[in-house]
């Protein structure tokens, strides 16, 4: 009932916004829009057929209340795919779990998690001395927490492994949160504007943390935001058992409801989109035929609304916004610019190190090996982490409360996505230029000089594009902070009067001109001048290496963009020299992040069953009664004891490390030699992991197909 009510109102907003977005798209197509031309090339198909990372990690299985060793793969679409073991992955068996991490938070301590769980069900807190909802067998947990969906519990053996997995998981969350395609000029703006209009109709202004994931996930979050408090009031007092059991049951209830809401929301949203697409040809025909009349009608409406609203808006801007614009801008500029400077530094160091190594080690074969790695630098979560971390300094302090900004995470993630894109553009431009030069080079000296010359050329382009991207980001962030604040301030005196302007819109054009949207455009114009001026002054003063708007590089390198239209460069295919993997083994996708051997770790990474040779077979886990909540994880002591025994036993010679070698060739040879440590291409120490033991049947875990997970954290039957 709640989903139907919310989606009914939202779909009405969406149909209205669809016509406006379609008009804006056609107008943009006809009139075009100026602006600085990017100097760097943009990769059209990044990371195709590549794996970001794969490795072994402990997962807590709620169905049988045990910790199990799982083989986790992060493919190029950033889903978390969990297999029983490495062998299951190589044999292309079905994975155990697929996790879409949109909306999740990555926690690295059980205390953080327990605090969030305690807050999710007020009045239910375990007494001191009682077992909490979760125990971790190591000091290095990794917990995926979601306000509505099920939670996922992982752990590793060392702090270094934890940091690496945390960077990988955060990259997954960052990518999945950005789930609305920016390529769509109609559906995406129609959707986001409809969400905003719906929330504003309920007096909810400002940023929204749960605007993350794809459209159906966002709509599910919208429903759950209203439904969960009612559900908690109705079900919370009726939960039975001790506090941890009630908390666990509540998480399961919330997850089950979230899945139901997701399916209902998806059906209703898909139907609304289909109706709009069906009407699209007729709407577009009307727009193209009557474009001039629609524009004239809209300008007439805007002039009337401007005369009514602008005096009030200007007073509000002067008193409540203008004094704080420079403070907000400075708070945004410092961490963002430091992050982009770090992107430049990481790129410079990687290319310089590659140049030195190619000259010292010699040969085109080495260049190919390093270029294969460099081409995916932007998607290396660990190497990019130093850039992303700069945004953690973003603090709006008192401004956050003044302008009703619930969290800065939306700005942090947006800036981090820009950083990754700029890094990939720089890398792609560099490899395209170098690829063009290779046929003309003779000897190492020529290669070294050419790499250095191309690097300097790309860095100049990076500085220009970085300035353009950052200035646009600052303007958008300032609008995102100030406009909701202004709309909320002006609502009591202006919003009730807007209905009288409806009669100024011709009925034929009512699908493309909305009073509410035009009103917001007028409010935006009232503050836009001050925002543009603040960013311009920062650029004139050369703060944080921003370029002035007057500094424009027009077609400085016209042939470069022609090169970017060619097919993707595959260095290993064009310049073969690496041994081929055995034909009968699964073709292994290239891996971006290499595997690490942790020197500080003293305990072996236990196999799945955690048993010594000659130990009795593991017992078949009992099926949990469907009416009873899962009991606390009673396998913690068992894991610790088994790990301690393994570290003293003969089996300690072979260590199962967190990760897997990224190349399939020669794996059996390494396994036969035991734990042979080698130097990886990233300088990391690589060890061949031992396969995890088979998990007993009847664990209660669901088997899934490798399709996309429909709900964040969903296991697909």
Counting DSSP H or I runs of 4 or more residues, the number of helices is: 18
State the helicity in percent bands. 40-55%
What percent strand? Answer: 5-15%
- Span of the ends, CA to CA: 26 Å
**Major sheet: size, sense and barrel closure?**
8 strands, mixed
Pfam families: Niban2 (PF26086), PH_Niban2 (PF26089)
Domain PH: 50-174
Organism: Pycnonotus jocosus
Region (Disordered): 558-717
Keywords:
717 residues; alpha+beta; PH-domain like; 8-stranded mixed beta sheet; two-stranded antiparallel sheet; Niban_1/2/3_dom; PH_domain
Describe this structure in words.
Among the domains are: about 1-35 and about 180-280, no CATH class; about 50-175, Roll (PH-domain like), CATH 2.30.29; about 325-495 and about 540-565, no CATH class. α1 packs parallel to α7 and α8 (about 290-360) crosses α14 (about 515-540). Residues about 580-585, about 595-635 and about 640-715 have low confidence and may be disordered. The longest helix is centred in the middle third of the chain and has 71 residues, at about 290-360. Helix content is about 55%, strand content about 5%. Strands 1, 2, 3, 4, 5, 6, 7 and 8 form an eight-stranded mixed beta sheet that branches. The relative contact order is 0.16. The chain is built from 18 helices and ten strands. It has helices at about 1-30, 85-90, 110-120, 160-175, 185-200, 215-235, 245-290, 290-360, 365-375, 380-390, 400, 410-435, 445-495, 515-540, 560-565, 570-575, 635-650, 665-670; strands at about 50-60, 65-75, 80-85, 95-100, 105, 140-145, 150-155, 590, 680, 685. The chain starts with a helix and ends in a 31-residue tail after the last strand. With about 725 residues, it is α+β, with helices and mostly antiparallel strands.
């Amino acid at each position: 009932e709640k989903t139907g009510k919310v989606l009914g109102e939202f779909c009405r907003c969406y149909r209205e916004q669809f016509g406006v977005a379609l008009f804006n798209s056609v107008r943009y197509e006809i009139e075009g829009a100026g602006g600085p031309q990017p100097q760097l090339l943009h990769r059209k198909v990044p990371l195709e057929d590549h794996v970001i990372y794969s490795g072994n990690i402990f997962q807590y299985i709620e169905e049988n209340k045990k910790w199990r060793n799982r083989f986790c793969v992060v493919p190029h679409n950033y889903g978390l795919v969990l297999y029983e073991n490495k062998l299951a992955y190589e044999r292309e068996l079905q994975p155990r779990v697929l996790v879409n991490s949109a909306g999740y938070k990555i926690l690295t301590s059980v205390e953080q998690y327990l605090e969030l769980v305690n807050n999710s069900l007020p009045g239910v807190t375990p007494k001191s001395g009682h077992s909490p909802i979760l125990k971790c067998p190591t000091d290095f947990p990794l917990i995926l927490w979601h306000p509505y969906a099920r939670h996922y519990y992982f752990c590793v053996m060392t702090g270094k492994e934890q940091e690496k997995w945390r960077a990988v998981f955060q990259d997954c969350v960052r990518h999945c949160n950005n789930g609305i395609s920016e390529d769509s000029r109609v559906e995406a703006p129609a959707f986001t504007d409809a969400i905003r209009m719906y929330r504003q109709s309920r007096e909810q202004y400002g940023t929204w943390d749960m605007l993350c994931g794809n459209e159906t996930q966002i709509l599910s979050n919208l429903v759950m935001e209203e439904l969960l408090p009612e559900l908690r009031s109705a079900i919370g007092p009726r939960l039975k058992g001790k506090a941890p059991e009630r908390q666990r049951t509540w998480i399961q209830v919330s997850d089950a409801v979230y899945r139901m809401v997701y399916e209902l929301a998806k059906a209703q949203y898909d139907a609304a989109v289909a109706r709009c697409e069906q009407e699209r040809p007729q709407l577009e025909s009307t727009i193209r035929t009557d474009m001039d009349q629609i524009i004239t009608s809209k300008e007439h409406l805007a002039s009337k609304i401007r005369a009514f609203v602008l005096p009030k808006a200007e007073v509000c801007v002067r008193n409540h916004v203008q004094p704080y614009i420079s403070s907000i801008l400075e708070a945004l500029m410092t961490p963002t610019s430091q992050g982009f400077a770090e992107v430049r530094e990481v790129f410079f160091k990687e290319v310089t190190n590659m140049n030195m190594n190619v000259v010292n080690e010699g040969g085109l074969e080495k260049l190919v090996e390093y270029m294969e790695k460099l081409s995916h630098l932007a998607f290396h979560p660990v190497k990019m982490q130093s850039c992303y971390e700069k945004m953690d300094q973003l603090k709006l302090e008192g401004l956050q409360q003044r302008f009703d900004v619930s969290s800065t995470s939306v700005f942090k993630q947006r800036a981090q996505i820009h950083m990754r894109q700029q890094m990939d553009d720089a890398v792609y431009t560099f490899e395209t230029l170098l690829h063009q030069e290779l046929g003309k080079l003779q000897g190492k000296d020529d290669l070294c000089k050419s790499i250095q010359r191309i690097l300097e050329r790309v860095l100049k382009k990076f500085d220009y594009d970085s300035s353009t991207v950052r200035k646009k980001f600052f303007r958008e962030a300032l609008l995102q902070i100030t406009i909701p604040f202004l709309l909320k301030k002006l609502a009591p005196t202006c919003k009730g009067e807007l209905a009288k302007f409806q009669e100024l819109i011709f009925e034929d054009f009512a699908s493309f001109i909305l009073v509410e949207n035009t009103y917001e455009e007028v409010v935006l114009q009232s503050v836009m001048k001050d925002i543009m001026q603040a960013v311009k002054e920062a650029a004139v003063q050369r703060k944080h290496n921003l370029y002035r708007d007057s500094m424009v590089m027009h077609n400085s390198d016209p042939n470069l963009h022609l090169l970017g239209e060619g097919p993707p460069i595959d260095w290993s295919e064009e310049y073969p020299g690496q041994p081929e993997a055995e034909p009968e083994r699964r073709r292994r996708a290239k891996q971006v992040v290499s595997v690490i051997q942790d020197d500080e770790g003293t305990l072996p990474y236990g196999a799945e069953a955690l048993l010594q040779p000659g130990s009795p077979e593991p017992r078949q886990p009992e099926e949990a009664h469907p009416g009873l909540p899962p009991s606390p994880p009673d396998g913690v002591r068992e894991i610790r004891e088994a790990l301690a025994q393994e570290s003293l036993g003969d089996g300690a010679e072979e260590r199962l490390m967190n990760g897997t070698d990224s190349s399939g060739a020669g794996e059996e040879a390494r396994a036969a030699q035991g734990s042979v440590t080698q130097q990886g291409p990233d300088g990391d120490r690589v060890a061949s992991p031992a396969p995890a033991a088979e998990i007993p049947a009847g664990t209660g875990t669901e088997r899934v197909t490798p399709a996309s997970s429909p709900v964040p954290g969903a296991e697909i039957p």
